[in-house]
User: Fold Lactoylglutathione lyase from Gossypium raimondii.
Amino acid sequence: MAEGSAAVPSTELLEWPKKDKRRFLHAVYRVGDLDRTIKFYTECFGMKLLRKRDIPEEKYSNAFLGFGPEESHFVVELTYNYGVTSYDIGTGFGHFAIATPDVYKMVEDIRAKGGNITREPGPVKGGSSVIAFVKDPDGYIFELIQRASTPEPLCQVMLRVGDLDRSVKFYEKALGMKVVKKVDRPEYKYSIAMMGYAEEHETTVLELTYNYGVTEYTKGNAYAQVCF
Assistant:
């Protein structure tokens, strides 16, 4: 470096985090019937179809859905590959989560529309948060979490990991996330770390789950990636 070259002032370095706009953009995964899944997400979850496109030369179609514009909300990108009607979700992907003011009402609405409720609404074990679980037509699990209000209803992506500390370090160093909550539940033999770019009630977070003694999971071919 030539003598006298300007260095970045320390004040600018201190201001950079305040201007940092990193966030979760969308989750990409594959479905066996695009229109069926769009119908389920819009009618049962209340999502909006934001855009849809067909790429015949590449033999696939996709659709983006969420609770608000892509420019400000986390959304799902559903991919349909021509002629493929089912996928293996694997054991590494856990679930998505949707925050709602009334889990009981949402569950009844979903049930009335033929949805598959895999866990009835009620408090979590050892806690007071009210949750339920729903399975979509392709087998993806959605947790419903009762919250009075939230700027981002599509609020979590849960992944299972074989080494929690190793994964936390990766997301901190590679993607600049921070741990917003960490919980160890030895009575149930699991630990979790919530990671994101803001507190979990403010934005979408990644929930990393470590089940005691389990160091590997199957990846399957259905869940693809989370984009930042």
